Amino acid sequence: MAVVDFALPDLGEGLTESELVTWHVAEGDSVELNQILAEIETAKALVELPSPFAGKIKKLYHPEGTTVLVGAPLIAFEIDGGPDEPAAEDGGQKEERQSVLVGYGPPIDSDKKSTRRAKKGASAPAAAPAAASGSEPEVVAESPRSTPPVRKLARDLGLDLRTISGTGKNGLITREDVEAAFSGAPEHAPSAAPAAAAGLQVAAAPIPRGERETRTRIQGVRKFTAAAMVQSAFTAPHASEFLTIDVTPTMELIAELKGSRQFAGKRINLLTIVAKALCIAVQRNPSVNSRWDEAAQEIIQFNYVNLGIAAATPRGLMVPNIKDADSLDLAGLADALSALVETAKSGASSPAELSGGTISITNIGSFGIDAGTPILNTGEAMILALGAVRRQPWEFNGEIALRQVLTLSVSFDHRLVDGEQGSKFLADVGAILAKPAMLLAMI
Amino acid sequence: MLRATVSKPDAAEGDILGDEAYIQLITPEGERVENPAFDPAVADIDKSKLADLYEDMVVIRRIDTEATALQRQGQLALWPPLLGQEASQIGSVRALRDDDYAVPSYRENGVAFIRGVSAEDLMRTWKGYAHGSWDPQLHNLAIPNVIIGAQTLHAVGYAMGIQRDGAKSASLAYFGDGATSQGDVNEALVFSAAYQAPVVFFCQNNHWAISEPVRLQAKRQIADRSPGFGVPSLRVDGNDVLAVLAATRVALERAYSGGGPTFIEAVTYRMGPHTTSDDPTKYRTSDEVAEWKTKDPITRVEKHLEKLGAFDEKLQSRVKAKADAVAAELRSKCIGMPKPGPLSMFENVQVEDNPVLERQRAQYAAYLEMFEGEE
Predict the structure, then answer these.
(1) ipTM
(2) Does a structural domain hold residue B141?
(3) What values do phi and psi take at B131, rounded to 5?
(4) pLDDT tens per residue, range B128-172
(5) Do B74 and A103 touch (CB under 8 A)?
(6) CB under 8 Å to B11, separation ≥6 — which residues?
(7) For residue B293, what are the domain limits?
(8) What's the CA gap between B348 and A362, in Å, rounded?
(9) What stretches of A328-380 adopt beta strand conformation (E)?
(10) CATH class of A236-442
(11) CB atoms within 10 A of CB A176
(12) pLDDT single digits (tens) B238-283
């Protein structure tokens, strides 16, 4: 016995949905081939649905009166026989690209993403999270308008059409646009910048000996990371600031906390404290925790902090976030951070974890880097890059001493955050790290 | 019994659109009606041969039912049911010789089956896998024509070719009542008459041009249209397989012997929807359908064979076995059909290689290359 799903077919020409009017069978019924199972009302006609199999009705997926999308499961059958039964074909049929031939219209709305062009990014569902907090998948929804020869040219030149703005009619990207973009773009700049800024992209596979160039198709997470970066970099005007501080008191605090009973067995480190400091600083400078909604012509002020942590994972750059991080105490934050990073590194982050972020931290210090100008996670207004902690000569109590020093870098969306708020936010984070006791004066 | 080549001037001879004024050899009740003019044309049809015609009709009805189900099950993109028109299709196609050439519309799937088209080829077009899916030369049957009435011109052209070849065969065009209002059909009539081409215009008046009833477009019988062009016409009960066979044989005989074109109006009824995308309940009454059900082409032959004592269990099981086998083959061929690639559309455009077409093919192949990784 095999259980086979039967999906609602297009009963007319180019239909996207139909209403299930009446079931003529019930779960558990045995049915003959071509026995009428249901009456279905399409936009064009009320039709009877004959059974595609002889077998037993295992499950009716929808009650009468439901509108069912074409391609959605309708009935599960228990049938005799192996995979060479019609079953396989039925199940597989909808997965294939539907040729636009007589009688078959466009795929159903909810499948629009799987039309010809979008299908190139068949890995979209998996890769979309790279756009992390973007949450709206519009980044990957539509390819820019162009013509096939120009698309080919762009592909041959290694350019992503999404990075090119069209000057043709209705924003059509012309051959000239592509050529201009190619000649105007220094070879390494666009690709290197986001990677360096995010600071987390691991090296590609080793280059085979004897090969002077290696060409890798732009696809998967790399492709969507790139798209997200481009969208962010060329939509939000970035401003960056740096602050170098003596974090010795914080490092001492961490050492103390590690020894305390409250934090026994917990992973507490600089990132934990920075995350907490960020949440406090956000409360005092709420504009850094907001979003520019161009479509709605609104600024969304988040009254919670979904804290994104950029993570280098086997699948590439991921930015999962901790929901309502501002409501967690330090111990809770420590737990949440370790769990989040573990999940991300195993590649198991859920779409929920990867979307809905409001502000992010990237820990470039873990690679021994001091500072950089991070690119905002799409849709967010502030990103904080945490540099490496170095023991270096620093003024302390009027003398030069070896202190633990780090640089904080921030980039913010200047549409939402002015230099004043950005600076105050950065100064607040710095103040907490430089003197954790300052918290008493802040909350 | 042939109509005059000049249309009758008065319409006062009764209901011109009435369905009774036609050649009928077997009544809906299964009674054999004597007809001195047409009986000789079917003198060879004994019980056994009538049983064969019966089997043909049952089989193509079964093909129709199965294909309709396959469409509902998502296996065919579209299907134009022939339900109710079995006698018109079988009676006419069984009148044809192998060397005659038939030119169908899209509903003549029963005709195609009898002409030897395989189940797979029959399904391929309706699955959306090909524009035309059988070899016309192999079956002397053109591929289905979706352009309403255009195929009548093709049939006349073919018949004019037959004349030039000096052959003794004929062509036969299938079309519907709606097509007779199209320019193409009228032009085809003009040419066929002018050249006295060996062609039979076989019009299945199934009463509905999709949702338009025949009475809206024709103020006289459809059979009255062609005499004005100089093409004599016959009006036949299209649900009577024997009458259709007789009328078509008479028309073909005229064509073979240099008599020129003949127009046949086979008065039948489309019991199902126009296609699987259509809902006929929106434009016609169930009473009308019920009335036509009493004129069913298969039931009347059953009744007639019963009267002859020939509708025995042996025949019934033979016919059932055949229909079951054909339906099963249709289903398996349809479901297991390999999907053609996009480039297959270049395969049957021209007989010989052609640099222009070859370039188009190469360019399209290059274009498809741009979507690699998609399949």
Answers:
(1) 0.76
(2) yes
(3) -80, -30
(4) 998 888 999 999 999 999 999 999 999 999 999 999 999 999 999
(5) no
(6) B220
(7) 39-340
(8) 60
(9) 359-362
(10) alpha beta
(11) 12
(12) 999 999 999 999 999 999 999 999 999 999 999 999 999 888 988 9
